[in-house]
Amino acid sequence: MRQIVLDTETTGLSPEDGHRIIEIGCVELLNRKITGNRFHVYINPEREIDQGAVDVHGLDNRFLADKPRFADIAEDFLAYVEGVELIIHNAPFDVGFLDAELRFLDSRRQIADYCAVLDTLALAKKKHPGQRNSLDALCKRYNVDNSRRELHGALLDAEILAEVYLAMTGGQSVLLLESEKNDADNLPQERTSAPKPRRDRPRLQVFLCDEADIRAHEKKLAAIDKASGGRCLWRQ
Description:
By secondary structure, the chain is α/β, with parallel strands linked by helices. The chain has one domain: Nucleotidyltransferase, domain 5. It has helices spanning 51-57, 61-64, 70-81, 91-105, 120-127, 135-141, 154-168, 172-185, 211-227, and strands spanning 2-10, 21-30, 33-42, 85-88, 116-119. The chain has a 5-stranded mixed sheet, with helices on both faces.
């Protein structure tokens, strides 16, 4: 399965006000593993960038003056994302800008014509209701290093989001299982059966739960069930 983690930087907050994309950063996930296949481009927006936006990402019109226009990179970008699932944090924002850019070129085209979209902000709100679910907050929650994120950057944020998404959806378990399988394959094969237990081994002790233990266990399950939105496996 091929997925693309995407982020953009823009001249301002709303394409309806004529704001444009100035950076696109994409990171490829292939079968839930980060590859080296990236798409990254700076774009000349052909308009002034709001100072508030410059304060967020640090990109100004002087830096972007000699960069390609969106029309110059559109076909390469669409070829890169066609047929994939886009993974975006707060997807309506980025997709809204991408659709606006496509409308400048051809009013009939939109991102939905090329790929599906998964919004990690919506996913995080479902998994962690009532909590902060910004990218920085998720980095802290899932122990993802975001120390390089002094300013926003489309490629850097896509790289960070890729790690957050894998952690949030349990992606590392696949790698661990594969590692354990490889370790097992490398073990000596001479022994074909388990060793027989010793006759003089100590008698196995069995400890039964009392009422206090059972109440504590139920209280813990209730807390897990609440935090997971009713998806506690031990209650199913």
